[in-house]
Design brief:
3 helices, alpha+beta, 116 residues, six-stranded antiparallel beta sheet, 6 strands
């Protein structure tokens, strides 16, 4: 039957992100041949994140049924969150995003330059 896309493989190259928790960017290869980049996070329970994403999906469903919301094209951006254990999980990689920690470090560096 059609159970959807399954994981057929994992790219050997893993990118370590230099943020506070040092997550890894991994790329899974689907049974459909497509590549799916994810953020692998450890030391964090992602079950709440998963529930929030499910809530956003329901909000989107309700907004599609609402004439005013549908006409304005309102929707909440959500992404896949897959807890793989009590302290680790995968988060769908969203292209073009910048981690808040990186923004903070850039701001901090600019502050030190202007003060010094």
């Amino acid at each position: 039957g059609d159970g959807g896309v399954t994981v057929a493989g994992v790219h050997a190259e893993v990118e370590l992100l230099l943020t506070k928790t040092k997550p890894k960017k991994v790329t899974l290869v689907g049974s459909d041949g497509h590549e799916y980049p994810f953020l692998l996070k450890g030391r964090e329970d992602l079950h709440l994140d998963e529930r929030v994403m499910q809530l956003l999906e329901m909000v989107n469903s309700l907004m599609r049924r609402d004439r005013a919301g549908h006409a304005k094209g309102l929707r909440a951006r959500h992404y896949n969150v897959v807890p793989v254990g009590p302290r680790a999980g995968l988060i769908q990689w969203v292209p073009g995003t910048v981690p808040l920690f990186r923004l903070y470090k850039s701001w901090q560096a600019r502050q030190q330059t202007t003060e010094g």
